């Protein structure tokens, strides 16, 4: 599920929020924390971009010693359509590790990701990742450039 928060109205210094719960279909990302989600705008359309994070290991792999263990999420980039609840995952060769607790910022059709930590390799990459999203009619195009 995804929860979409929005401002309904502002009156007399009072702000009212609305929360809409949506079921996701398609490539549904696993539950996670320490991730980022940004909104990009391309060709008059917008889409959410989810990346990184950690999740608890699946219950089928848990043992008494590792009951609350966590693992990096796979380094997939998910495009999420907030209106229809559709999610599609992309594998980009430039993103080799799942990163948690990174910083991201979106500007128009591009997301920049910096920092973070990978549990699997115990690394904190010194790269700036530039992910460009193009939303033509049909399938989106997702490209990544690594800026050392």
From TrEMBL:
One of its GO terms (molecular function) is zinc ion binding. Keywords: Chromatin regulator, Metal-binding, Zinc, Zinc-finger. The keyword Zinc-finger applies. It comes from the Eukaryota. Pfam families: RAG2. Gene3D superfamilies: Kelch-type beta propeller. It comes from Galemys pyrenaicus (Iberian desman). This is Recombination activating protein 2. Signal peptide: none annotated. One of its GO terms (cellular component) is DNA recombinase complex. GO terms for biological process: chromatin organization; V(D)J recombination. InterPro entries: Gal_Oxase/kelch_b-propeller, Kelch-typ_b-propeller, RAG2.
């Amino acid at each position: 599920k995804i929860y979409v928060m929005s401002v309904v109205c502002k009156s007399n210094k009072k702000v009212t929020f609305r929360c809409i719960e949506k079921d996701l279909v398609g490539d549904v990302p696993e539950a996670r924390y320490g991730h980022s989600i940004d909104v990009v705008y391309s060709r008059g359309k917008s889409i959410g971009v989810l990346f990184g994070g950690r999740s608890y290991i699946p219950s089928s792999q848990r043992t008494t010693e590792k009951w609350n263990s966590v693992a990096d999420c796979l380094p997939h980039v998910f495009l999420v359509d907030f209106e229809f609840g559709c999610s599609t995952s992309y594998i980009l060769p430039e993103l080799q590790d799942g990163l948690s607790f990174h910083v991201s910022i979106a500007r128009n059709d591009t997301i920049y990701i910096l920092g973070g930590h990978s549990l699997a390799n115990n690394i904190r990459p010194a790269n700036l990742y530039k992910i460009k999203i193009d939303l033509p009619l049909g399938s989106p195009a997702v490209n990544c450039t690594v800026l050392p």
